[in-house]
């Protein structure tokens, strides 16, 4: 598995983001349920969000995020940063492997 930090940057006013927030979080939950996502949350200040994810490849993770309601509405941009988690807390061992 490859590991990624996904940086989400809002391209619309926060009021528009908030109108889609519930759908976005519901979509993220499907990623948690499938083991694709480890954690996520808004950046501070609230200019976007951050997600820690894993997938077989960059193509797989970017395809999955292409169905995120923020992406479908055209109100956010995504940057994918692959990294190798060589050090981590022991409780993450199964997720990292």
Topology order in helix (H) and strand (E) letters: EHEEHHEH
* Straight-line distance between termini: 7 Å
**Structure classification:** alpha+beta
Low-confidence stretches: none
Number of strands: 4
Hey, roughly how much beta strand do the residues contain? 25-35%
Radius of gyration: 13 Å
Helical residue percent? 25-40%
Strand order within the widest sheet?
A: 2-3-1-4
Q: Mind summarizing the main beta sheet?
A: 4 strands, antiparallel
Total of DSSP H or I helical runs spanning 4+ residues: 4
Average pLDDT number: 97
Morphology call: globular
Question: What can you see in these coordinates?
Answer:
- The protein has 97 residues and is α+β, with helices and mostly antiparallel strands.
- It has helices at 14-33, 58-65, 69-72, 93-96, and strands spanning 2-10, 37-42, 48-55, 76-83.
- The chain has a 4-stranded antiparallel beta sheet.
- Strand 2 and strand 3 form a beta hairpin.
- The longest helix has 20 residues, at 14-33.
- The mean pLDDT is 97.
């Amino acid at each position: 598995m490859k590991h990624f930090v996904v940086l989400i940057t809002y391209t619309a006013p926060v009021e528009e983001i908030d109108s889609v927030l519930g759908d976005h979080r519901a979509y993220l939950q499907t990623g948690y349920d499938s083991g694709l996502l480890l954690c996520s949350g808004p950046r501070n200040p609230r200019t976007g969000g951050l997600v820690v994810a894993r997938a077989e490849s960059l193509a797989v993770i970017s395809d999955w995020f292409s169905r995120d309601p923020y992406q479908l509405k055209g109100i956010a941009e995504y940057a994918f940063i692959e990294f190798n988690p060589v050090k981590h807390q022991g409780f993450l061992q199964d997720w990292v492997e």
